[in-house]
Amino acid sequence: MRISPLNSLLKLRHRPRQLPRPRKISSTSSSSSSSTNSNPSTPNPKYTLKAMSGSVIGATLFAASMSSPAALDKIPEHAKEKRHHLKGGEGKGFTNPWDSWKEMGVLGIGMAMAKAKISGEFGTPDTTPPTFPVIKPTFLPTRATSFLRATWLGHACYYVEYPSGLRVLFDPVFEERCSPFSFMGPKRYTPIPCKLSEIPIVDFVVISHSHYDHLSHPTVMEIHKSHPNAQFIVGLGLKKWFKECGIENCVEMDWWEDIDVTLSPVTGEKRISTSSQTSSKNSPPPSPSPPSSSLTSISPITARISCLPSQHTSARTAFDKGHTLWCSFAVTSNSKSVWFGGDTGYRAVPQVPKGTDDYGPEYQHLPICPAFKEIGELRGPFDLGLIPIGVYEPRHIFSPMHANPFDSVNIFLDTKCKRAMGIHWGTWVLTPEAVMEPPQLLKKALTWKNIPETGVFDVCDIGESREF
Q: The domain 5-467: what is its CATH number?
């Protein structure tokens, strides 16, 4: 595959049509099991499903109510200053307010990449099949499980099934190309593992930011078709894009804001509503209204979704860089919590001689992003972290916005994740590192921090599920 600066730089907007120890799970193993809920005080009911319109929808439907976005948990004192909001003459939008960030405009990145290509630093990795396995995923046919179950669907997309019954899809992109065009741009070298309609239940779709490898118009419209009640959770400024797509089920959030969610069992058609109620600081999710007597054996599902910082940027065109907010997210339901890193850098690394360790003594002074330690101290620990490990070379160009595996392990430690899975690799050639380099470097980085190579921070096949 030919790599050009255009492929990595192109952020042209695709105008939406106005419709707008982890347990390894075999792909052939049975996924259906009934067990006790992780919260012993809450009964864990059995849910039945039936097929409708090419997708599987719970015969027991759930109505979602949500509090308005607000700081419901501990936040750093400086969060009130909104330093990441551009103000005054700087223009509109957002910025990374840390010394660990180095701003590079579109022109600057283009010139740096052109120079890297001329010098041979920006080459073309070998994507000759087979690269690594892609298996057909299996999803639980009911909402009942005693484990937190996570399935990698390629690049940054994970489908997470919570013991509470909650089902969350993170950064889904189910197209051949991550591009505004179907005929050009980075093309998959590993196949799409399944159809969106094959995912049985989607309660929430969490989008970290607007780049094309994380937000896809065709995918969003297919989710809206297959799972019309799914609620999209996005960063500030991005709700407008969804409304232009004809999608009203969208909530936008700022860093350090939370929403409390209750999915209550109902009869008849499931409807989404956003309540105007605001929970008090450090309060638990609100208690739902009692269901009808025929549904009293089915427990409501409660969750808290938290929008948290990341070090990145956003754009859909060459002219809207930073206009919408990039984020990481934490989703907690009952006793299980997941931190989704989305796409993020950790520190800005200068150009160093080839073969030089940019974590060597001469580079120890480089600032690191403080947000991850704040996330860990104020919101951690997390049962599972979904942490990016790929798309990082050349480092002097991409390190501010993309972590390499050594950065990723530091992020893992800073955020206090108990376990982690590597994301943001294995799908499209976006930068020139070898296809299998990210997981290989991850093992070296884990050894560097005296962490076992397996069983703590792992990678898996596309389509594979792990239980935690």
A: 3.60.15.10
